[in-house]
Design a protein that fits this description.
Elements lengths: L2 H55 L3 H24 L1 H30 L5 H21 L5 H12 L7 H4 L14
Length: 183
């Protein structure tokens, strides 16, 4: 396999790995907000229950107003949560993250086959193009990600988990496929 082909495969591994991280981070962000909304609902529900018990023992008008306002807020949060479909969005990002991870593994396997000389250059190019088409199709149908997911992915990359340089690409390649000394 020539150096240009290897460089191209390594670049595509990085691109797919980066996209995988972005979808994971987007799912994490959505799941965080799902948790915040659920805890808010629990707290408001508890407050409404306390207010209703308070109404049994007193006839304060202010307690009735607080109970009605709290009930309205809880109903609003419940409707917003239901209409946004956050659970489905988070699940879709997780699904696509897994699909990108599978694609990255396929690219790594292709790199291993190419370096091991079990495939000739034309077979490598054909398989590379098939995987690129799969990547393009994933991108076409994948859910949109938010800028915060990109920022979190960048932070993950800056912390050295994954980057677009050879030394970090090597961290998710089997030892025999690495090109940079990792001592």
């Amino acid at each position: 396999m020539n150096n240009e082909m290897e460089s191209l495969l390594r670049e595509r591994i990085n691109r797919v790995a980066y996209t995988h991280i972005i979808h994971e981070k987007n799912a994490d962000i959505i799941n965080f907000w799902i948790g915040v909304l659920k805890w808010t609902q629990i707290i408001i529900s508890a407050a409404i229950t306390c207010e209703l018990f308070g109404l049994f023992f007193s006839n304060e008008c202010s307690l009735k107003i607080v109970a009605v306002v709290s009930s309205f807020i809880l109903t609003s949060i419940t409707m917003i949560t239901k209409n946004l479909g956050l659970d489905q969005k988070a699940e879709k990002h997780k699904t696509y993250a897994a699909r990108y991870l599978n694609l990255k593994d396929s690219l790594i396997a292709l790199l291993a086959d190419a370096k091991g000389m079990s495939l000739n250059d034309s077979d490598v190019a054909k398989r590379r193009d098939e995987l690129q088409k799969e990547y393009d199709e994933l991108n076409e149908h994948a859910p949109r990600t938010c800028s915060r997911a990109y920022s979190k992915a960048e932070k993950t990359i800056e912390e050295g988990m994954r980057t677009a340089n050879d030394s970090v690409t090597d961290t998710f390649l089997p030892e025999k496929l690495r090109i940079v000394n990792t001592k």
